[in-house]
Amino acid sequence: MTEKQETLPAQKLPKGEFRSIFWRSFSLLGSFNFQRMQGLAFLYAMLPSLKRIYRDDPEGLKGAMHRHVETFNMTLAPSPIVMGTSVAMEERFKTDPDFDSSAINAVKVSLMGPLSGIGDTFFWGIFRILACSIAVGFAQQGNFLAPFLLLFVFNIPNFLTRWYGLKFGYQQGQGIMRAMGASGKMQLFTFCAGIVGAMSMGSMIALWVKIKSPLKFTISHNKFVLQHYLDQIMPALLPLACTLGILVLLKKRVPVMWIIGIVIAVGAVLGGFHIISGGKA
Amino acid sequence: MTLTQAILVGLVAALTHLDGGWLGEAKFREPIVTGFLVGLIFGDVPHGLMIGATMQLLWMGVTGVGPTPKLDIGTGGTIGAAVALSTGTGAKDAIIFAVPVALLLQLVNTLMTSAFSAFMPYVDKKIDELKTGVIQGIHYLCGLIAALLYFGITFIGMYFGTPVIKAVVNGMPGWVEAALNGVAALLPALGFAMLLDVILTKKLIPFLILGFIPAAFVGHDLSMLGITAVAVALALIIYNLYSDLQSKNVAPQPALAGSADEWED
Question: pTM for this one?
Fold first, then answer.
């Protein structure tokens, strides 16, 4: 592998682009849907960078947009870290033919889970409780400062995490890409990112796809609860079976529109007859 | 309640929904904030704040963790404060009043979130046509629809009173909600399957199993952080192993991420 611009100093995102992604990151739940969750919003945040990176490459832009509209779901505040990393990876992908684009999605998936866990703890567990409990005392006395205190205490860490997260994610992403490219281990890196991505996907299917069967009836005074039997085979069997079933359809290149139609029809019929439901975790 | 007041309360409810969608959960939905805004509308900020504080303590433990928040504290708090201030009742009575509206909004939210899925194939098509303006437009449109729905329902509930809302909720056949629930349960499987379609190669299947089994059996006691840590450890082992082999020239780096992905049964 030849030395390609590896000696260049670490770059910064153009100022306007950085601000654009920063502000757009706030709308991550703006078009939330059950199919791709925050996918469209993630693409929306990435668009300024993608347009710059692929300004002379319409086919590349198409591919990149398809990558970032895929399912994405995480706690909001740390999400700019993933956006920064994704921009760095896209920049690399544009210039390095050894870099497999599936690694971009694998890295995104790998970051989603742990960053959400940490983010939930800090933003829902600590900052929100802190902001609310400080404000409650003022509110009980009817002091108009209460809402402003609440918003300030919560949003200072909220804004700082987003701003420095975006910076940090971009720098880290660039650093890793540079190191991998220099050592000629891009393929190996791609595979290892795939390992973390695939394992995360495995657990996300078990934890985040919630399909249960409320089906129960009584045969000669014996209560029959389908979910109990399914759980005895394996917990989260229905989420796994449904996801893999749809994956097989996708791999057989059944048009996505058909698959969506099938999913909605099957979901409505099975749901309507109380055979499946979105069970609680 | 006057027409203007009902409209303004509807706007506050829309703001609490946009708080999650567009303002990055900046916490405009917290009852203290909505109590303050509703207090401004009714010209009684101190009481609005006190009612807000009561509801805040009641709902301190409600979080939005996970794809579907269980209780809509934004609209619930807004309506609760508005009812309490306009009728002079306490916060706890106000919450009872807000329940049917919150119930309806929960259902509307499920319906909306399912319906937004229908935009996704259209977005895919527009990506192929490189219509970035349209793609952004759809993102904005989702926000507009959500804001209008939350504004509209809250306004109707406020202006015509909750009997109207109650009638709608009670008049809905049970199977509608069940069918919607079924679709909402299945759609995430489609999203994850599409993501797997991008990431999963045949050589990665063992790792999918390794991630699934512990999470399926242990459940949420095993955090994503824990699983990812194990995954990173495994990835590092394999990375180091191949790096060592490579540096000793024992074996050339295999085509691990090969594009020949013959994933057929």
Answer: 0.83
